[in-house]
Amino acid sequence: MTSPIDIEDGGTSVVVDGEPGPQTQPEVQKLVGRSPGQLMWIRFKRDRTGVISAYVVGFFFLVGLCAPLISKLYGKDPFTVYADERPDLFDSAGVPLQPNGGISGDFWFGLEPGNGYDVFTKLLYGIRTSLMISVAVTLATVLTGILLGVAAGYLGGKPDYFISRVIDFLLAFPAQLFFIASMPVVVSLFVSPRDETPTYVRVVALIAVQWVLGWMSLARILRGTSLALREREFIEAARVSGATPWRIIRKEILPNVVTPILVQSTYMLPGFVTAEAGLSYLGVGIVEPTPDWGQMFSKASTELVMSNDITYMFFPGVSMIVFIVAFNLLGDSVRDAFDPKTAR
């Protein structure tokens, strides 16, 4: 009598010349659904331009956050007046003696003509200041736009009419002229014109002035989206079930307006960076000795710097161009990732 022989075929066990063994069913793969957020993340990761832009933007924010640490490791700070500390590096007019603004192993980006500040650390802290102010303005405008835009769109009636007229009124103001004219007025509310204005007062004034005329575009977009959403069946079902307006807005409306909020935010922040830099360039924003992107442009445009060290403009100029372009490309990639019909 022959012994049984086991044969395995495709996950099924059979016994030859003996009793059949237990039948094992092949594994069935479970299909797992993906949320809209997961699909968006998958589409975004496939966009090489968006991923590179995200890394560039993250690098700038990391540099801004770590500016004190980098400065400490570098061994210098943006407040030391090297024209007094090391006068041997400057001529009688305060211009660095070495070419290209005194770029060397000790001063990587050179020295600023006049006071002799270290350009590298001044740029690091300037990025930190500009991004801190711009992020604060963006958060304030986004929160205001969400609150007023969604409320106007969902509630309708008199709230919608009142908020819409306020938006129309504020959109009539020329933003840049309003910023320039109102900055001294806002600062004078906190500090007497005869006293020196603290830096924190200028920062608060910059945030407040840009916030006043910065939230309307997002609010108008969210109002239109909310107007369309409130007529949908799931909103009507929630209303019939007895849900309060606040609960409907929080649970039904807000999750469906995340896309325009994120996309619009990625376009607003670089706009506020350039606006803040422009105000500092014109002398109504951040002033010396506090480092700032726009203040570095203002210093680079003076006759002393332009005629003796044209390379001083290179470092803040290139860094701002790279940041603005990367953030705008990131905004495009985020918009395309949320839109499944877009093919790039």
Task: Set out the fold topology.
Layout: E1 5-9, E2 12-16, H1 36-46, H2 48-65, H3 67-74, H4 82-85, H5 99-102, H6 119-155, H7 157-171, H8 175-190, H9 199-212, H10 216-229, H11 233-240, H12 245-253, H13 258-281, H14 293-300, H15 303-308, H16 314-338
Antiparallel strand pairs: 1-2
Helix pairs in contact: 1-16, 2-6, 2-16, 3-6, 6-7, 6-9, 6-10, 6-13, 6-14, 7-10, 8-9, 11-12, 13-14, 13-16
The beta-strand count equals 2
Major sheet attributes: 2 strands, antiparallel
The amount of beta strand, in percent, is under 5%
Structural class: mainly alpha
Shape: elongated
Helix content, binned percent: 55-70%
Summed up:
With 344 residues, the chain is mainly alpha-helical.
Describe the structure.
The protein has a two-stranded antiparallel sheet. Strand 1 (5-9) and strand 2 (12-16) form a beta hairpin. The chain starts with a strand and ends in a 6-residue tail after the last helix. The chain has 344 residues and is mostly helical. The protein is 64% helix and 3% strand. It is elongated. The chain has 16 helices and two strands. The model is unreliable at 1-16 (pLDDT under 50).
Characteristics:
about 350 residues; mainly alpha; about 5% strand; two-stranded antiparallel sheet; elongated
